[in-house]
Specification:
about 240 residues; alpha+beta; Alpha-Beta Plaits; 6 helices
């Protein structure tokens, strides 16, 4: 939704865009950042010389922290790290042209957190380690073991699919939207992001903990709450 550029002269001042916020509630108090306002929304920006922009790990951490502060105080559409526009006039034009889109997206994520959940199979990891550490006395034994590993891998995958379908169904009841990652591999058998109302934060986390207790053969990794990074595609 906001497309940055990298074609400016190195010494020209540019606007680094952190996100779009609902600006009807309160004023922005995160100096040196400031709002570029259009009607009841605003782009939160910081002015910097292009030659001073350094996109390293520390800068990414600071950027993420700023987004968390914004998410705490405002309804936020976070922008990608390193999004910048040429000047305030360009920022205003983008807000004006995409106002309806931003308003709709802000309403979708209002008063909501994002959580990420990955589920790993402990059984798959154990079988893989045993198979890798074993020494084979013959080629036939090796092939038979590989066939057995393949069959148990398929069975384990089917069992994990049944379990994660149940888990996902339970968590969907407590969330407004969810986005599953279909490209899981290795010991990861499930990965999904959930958009959860802030008032349901504790309930959602408690449900994840309870589900972990119901499936001890699986290992849950829950992250968040975060700004709704994965639910504002195209920003």
């Amino acid at each position: 939704m906001i497309e940055g550029s990298n074609v400016f002269d190195q010494k020209v001042l540019v606007c680094c865009v952190y996100g779009i916020v609902d600006y009807s509630a309160q004023e922005l108090k995160i100096p040196p950042l400031y709002p570029v306002v259009y009607r009841d929304i605003a782009a939160v920006v910081g002015t910097s010389c292009k030659e001073r922009l350094k996109f390293d790990r520390q800068a990414a951490i600071e950027y993420g922290h700023t987004l968390e502060v914004l998410h705490r105080d405002f309804t936020l559409i976070p922008c990608r790290f390193g999004t910048f526009l040429q000047n305030e006039h360009t920022v205003s034009r983008v807000l004006r042209e995409h106002y309806c889109v931003y308003k709709k997206k802000l309403e979708e994520v209002k008063d909501r957190h994002e959580f990420g959940l990955k589920i790993m199979s402990e059984k798959k990891a154990q079988r893989s380690n045993v198979s890798n550490e074993r020494r084979w006395e013959s080629g036939k034994e090796y092939l038979m073991q590989k066939f057995y590993d393949y069959r148990t891998h398929i069975e384990a995958g089917q069992d994990a699919k049944k379990a994660t379908d149940v888990i996902h169904g339970e968590l969907q009841r407590l969330s407004n939207m969810s986005l599953k990652d279909t490209k899981v591999n290795g010991n990861v058998v499930f990965s999904c992001n959930y958009l959860v109302e802030k008032r349901r934060k504790s309930l959602f986390c408690s449900k994840v903990q309870a589900l972990q207790g119901m499936y001890p053969e699986l290992r849950f990794l829950l992250t968040g709450p975060w700004p709704p990074y994965n639910f504002v595609a195209g920003n």
